[in-house]
Each structure stands twice: as C-alpha cells, then as structure tokens.
C-alpha cells in the first residue's frame, strides 16, 4: 500500500459530515444508520447519562483487531478517521481493501465516552478518567469496553487518542503530529514478546509516515500504570497500540492530522492482514524519539515589561484553552508562563526584540489571564484563533 493509494482512498471516502473538533453522538448516529447496509452495527451499552454506545464490526477474517475512540470525550480526531476508514471498507472494491476484509475482523467502538464527547470533556459524566479505570471498572463505559474485549478476544488492540499541542518530538523544534506507544506490560517496562508485536506494527507506520512528515512522529511515555487500559490489555498478552493524534502547523481543527491518522490506521490493518506479526522486526521502534512537553502555542520573545518599578526583558508564553460555547469549540488564549522561555518552542513566535509589551487598557500582566490582544510598541497583535 503506497502513499498514493492512501491519498486516493482518503480523498474518495472522507466523511465530510464530520469536521472540526466537536464530535458527539448526534453527529455519528446518522452515519451509523447508513453503515448498517454494510456492517454489523450494535447497541452495546449505555453511558452514565444513558447515551447509547455502539460498535461496528467489519470483515470476516480470522485476525481480530479491536479499536475504540473518544475514551476521552474531547479527543475526536481519531473518530473522524474511523468513519473515513469505514467509508473505505463500505464502498471500495479494490483488491487491497478486499484482502483486509477477508483476512481480518475489525471491531470498533467509535465513541466510548458519549457524555464526555457531548460536554467536550476528557472525563465521563461522573468526572472519571476512563483511561484510569481499567482496574476498578467502576464506570458503565469501562465495563462495556472490558466486556467487548473479553468476548471478542482480539489479536490486536488500537487505543485511539488525541494529544495536546504542548508535545514535541525529542529535543528538536518539531511538533509531535502523530505519536505511538506499545504500552508497558509490567513495572520494569520489559520488552516482552507481546510488546514486540505492537512495536513491529508501529515501526511500519513510523517508516511510512517519516517520508511525509519527517521528524514529527514520537513515542509516548511508557511508564507502567495498571489502571490504564492499554497497559492492562497488554498485560493480558494482547498486543496493544496507542495512537495519539497531535498538532500539525496551524492545524488546530486537526484536519491535516486526521489524514495521517487515517493513513497509519489503514496501513497497519493492511500489514496485519498480510503478515504473521511475530515481533521479530521490533527494533526500529526503539529508535523513535520520545515525546517532550516542549511547546507553547505562542511565545512573545524578549518583551520589555515593567514590574514593581523595575524594567525586565522576559518571554511571555500563551496557551490556548479549549472552551465549548454554543456547540462550537473556542480557543481561548491565556498567559501560561512568564520568564525565560528560551528552552521552549512555540507554534507561533512573536519577536518583541526588547520593545515595550502591554495589554489592552494597561491590564496587569500575570499568569492565568486571558489575552486576546497584545501590544508591542503600541502595535496591536491579535492572538485569537478560528473557532472549531
């Protein structure tokens, strides 16, 4: 499967009904209705607020892949990619796609946390992080996920997430557009045979994506936590792959990242369908750099500020907070850090060059405040982003 193949598939089958960052059950229920003509769609449970949770079963093959998206309700990019891929399997007759359908059975939960998705929150309606509930299974959504895992008995799990704009790749000035992880199976992070299989598949995806977004793929922290779903499923000897949809330059709606996630998912399914994944080819995974918390959305560099009668030259770091308002996600710029930020990168640098920095109506400059407009030598700069 080539990049040209994947671009054609994406352009032909992208689900245009899903866009921007705010995706919840009302958006996907009409799509599930359409997919009933092609796949087995089931109502598999209810959320805390009794919102339906659904599954999609695709293909008939012996290799079983289980994937779930929006475990964290505000991480929707992978959900969009899931429906793009569903459209491919529903409407594409090419030999490449048919081979996956013959060799694999794919079971998908498109939105595991519908309450969090509706409220655009990480947690569910009981304010529980479902990715820290694998051990206690205290929430109905956690029980749905674990029940399906137990009954389906997958050969691979895809744990689909989204990550914040703060993540970079290693120590370089590149955002982590896509990140992966073969989760730890024990406290010592032993490279087990199960982890090697996940690492092998990740290595294939990494090599492919590096040709398109070089040095923008990272590995997520693999510290072991048996409350995390990925670590738990890996510990049960099911090779589990964490997908993290991250930031691409100026892509706050995550539409460009959506394409790379689509590519990675479909490529991995193709690889699993055609190969006996033994884990023998895992070592390339070890060369993928780790994520680092090295970015802010905006840094005003070398700003001249007065404080307590003293003149200081400092950097001012701004981070966007995501706020749901009238069914639209607004990006609210807030001052995150003030000081020497030379060790951090920014998605947008504003060079003050020791010129006077001020806010609207001479507002006091301090961490935590909202700053939609700033002034450098009385020249106005807007920090607002387009709504999503």
What does the model show?
By secondary structure, the chain is an alpha/beta fold. The chain has two domains: 3-293, Zn peptidases (Aminopeptidase), CATH 3.40.630; 295-382, Urease, subunit C, domain 1. Helix content is 28%, strand content 29%. The protein contains nine helices and 17 strands. An eight-stranded mixed sheet has the order 1-2-4-3-5-9-7-8, with helices on both faces. Strands 13-12-11-14 form a four-stranded mixed sheet, with no helix packed on it. Strands 15-16-17 form a three-stranded antiparallel sheet, with no helix packed on it. Helix 1 crosses helix 9 (255-274), helix 3 (77-91) packs across helix 9 (255-274) and helix 7 packs across helix 9. The longest helix has 20 residues, at 255-274. It is globular and about 70 Å long. The two termini are 32 Å apart. This is Peptidase M14. Keywords: Hydrolase, Metalloprotease, Protease, Zinc.
Number of helices: 9
Low-confidence stretches: none
**Percent helix range:** 25-40%
Radius of gyration: 22 Å
- The CATH top-level class label of the largest domain: Alpha Beta
* Proportion of residues in β-strands: 25-35%
- Gross morphology: globular
What structural category do the secondary elements indicate? alpha/beta
CATH homologous superfamily caption of the largest domain: Zn peptidases
CATH fold title of the largest domain: Aminopeptidase
- How many β-strand stretches? 17
Widest β-sheet, arrangement of strands: 1-2-4-3-5-9-7-8
Through-space gap between termini: 32 Å
Instruction: Give me the strand/helix succession.
Output: HHEEEHHEHHEEEHEHEHEEEEEEEE
Major β-sheet profile: 8 strands, mixed
Q: Any idea what the CATH architecture of the largest domain is?
A: 3-Layer(aba) Sandwich
């Amino acid at each position: 499967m080539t990049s040209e193949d994947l671009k054609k598939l994406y352009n032909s089958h992208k689900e245009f009904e899903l866009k921007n960052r705010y995706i919840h059950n009302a958006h996907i229920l009409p799509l599930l209705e359409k997919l009933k003509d092609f796949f087995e769609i089931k109502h598999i449970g209810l959320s805390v607020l009794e919102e339906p949770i659904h599954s999609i079963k695709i293909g008939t093959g012996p290799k079983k892949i289980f994937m779930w998206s929006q475990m964290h309700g505000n991480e929707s990019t992978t959900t969009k990619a899931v429906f793009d891929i569903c459209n491919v399997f529903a409407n594409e007759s090419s030999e490449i796609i048919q081979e996956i359908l013959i060799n694999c059975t794919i079971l998908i939960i498109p939105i595991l946390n519908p309450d969090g998705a509706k409220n655009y929150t990480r947690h569910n309606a009981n304010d529980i992080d479902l990715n820290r509930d694998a051990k206690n299974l205290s929430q109905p959504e956690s029980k749905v996920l674990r029940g399906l895992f137990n009954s389906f008995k997958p050969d691979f799990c895809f744990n689909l997430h989204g990550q914040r704009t703060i993540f970079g790749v290693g120590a370089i000035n590149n955002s982590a557009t896509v990140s992966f992880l073969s989760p730890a199976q024990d406290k010592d992070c032993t490279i087990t045979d199960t982890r090697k299989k996940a690492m092998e598949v990740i290595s294939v995806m990494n090599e492919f994506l590096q040709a398109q977004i070089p040095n923008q793929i990272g590995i997520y922290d693999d510290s072991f936590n048996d409350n995390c779903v990925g670590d738990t499923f890996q510990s049960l000897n099911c090779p589990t792959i964490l997908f993290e949809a991250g930031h691409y330059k100026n892509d706050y709606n995550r539409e460009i990242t959506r394409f790379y996630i689509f590519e990675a998912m479909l490529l991995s399914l193709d690889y699993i369908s055609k190969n006996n994944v033994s884990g023998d080819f895992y070592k390339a995974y070890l060369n993928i750099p780790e994520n680092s918390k090295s970015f802010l959305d905006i840094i005003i560099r070398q700003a001249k500020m007065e404080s307590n009668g003293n003149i200081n030259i400092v950097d001012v770091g701004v981070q966007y907070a995501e706020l749901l308002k009238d069914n639209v996600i607004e990006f609210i710029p807030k001052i995150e850090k003030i000081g020497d930020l030379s060790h951090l990168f920014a998605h947008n640098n504003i060079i003050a060059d020791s010129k006077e920095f001020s806010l609207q109506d001479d507002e006091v400059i301090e961490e935590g405040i909202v700053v939609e407009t700033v002034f450098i030598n009385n020249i106005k700069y807007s920090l607002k982003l387009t709504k999503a």
